[in-house]
Amino acid sequence: MNIHQYFPVDIVNGPGTRCTLFVAGCEHRCAGCYNKCTWRVNSGVPFTLLHEERLIADLNDSRIPRQGLSLSGGDPLHPANVADILRLVKRIRRECSGKDIWLWTGYRLADLSDAQQEVVRLIDVLVDGKFVEALKDPALLWRGSSNQVIHYLTRPADYQDEISHIQHKLTPPT
Fold it and tell me: Can you say how many angstroms the Cα of residue 116 is from the centroid of all Cα atoms in its chain?
């Protein structure tokens, strides 16, 4: 698997302070995509054991507590990425207690392959669906277009306070 970027401290891609990994490879090629440079599977740089060790260390670093990991791209569920993403997610579950995992994909939950579903069974939140430029809405929370769905797969109550707070901030005063 190749990656394009890694942010050890991110407050944009999901709730709280997080680590965010942008992978290479996306077959959806959505019009208006803000990350076209990640479409080619062989673009970016290889995700090495050194990258993985740093990510695990960052997630466990108590000096800057992270709520979890965000996986984006490209598409983490691109067939070329699934095996490596599955291995990474399993390792995070073993070694990073209490951290949540969010994943963005252009695939729809209902259409995932068995291998992709194996990854999804181990994450907390899935944001699915292709970006549709005609449905773009900058006011949406953690997604770019209104067709995309946030699936709270585990512990949905954990996110309700944060969601309510952010939605309140986005609501114009009357």
Answer: 14
pLDDT tens track for 81-127: 999 999 999 999 999 999 999 999 999 999 999 999 999 999 999 99
Stretch (H or E) spanning 4: strand 2-10
CB 78 within 8 A of CB 26: yes
d(CA 134, CA 122): 32
pLDDT given for residue 169 in this prediction:
46
Residue of 91, 83, 85 whose CA lies nearest to 59:
91
Instruction: Work out the number of other CB atoms within 10 angstroms of the CB of residue 54.
Output: 14
- Report yes or no on whether pTM surpasses 0.85: yes
Residue 159, token pair as written in the block: 């996110």
For the chain of 174 residues, list the mean pLDDT of each consecutive stretch of 10. 96 95 93 84 96 98 96 96 98 97 96 97 96 92 92 74 52 52
Question: DSSP string spanning 23-51?
Answer: ES--S---TT-TTGGG-STT-SEE--HHH
Of the chain, the end-to-end C-alpha distance in Å amounts to 49
The CA-atom distances, in angstroms, between 28 and each of 20, 48, 52 are 21, 25, 26
The one-letter amino acid at 63: R
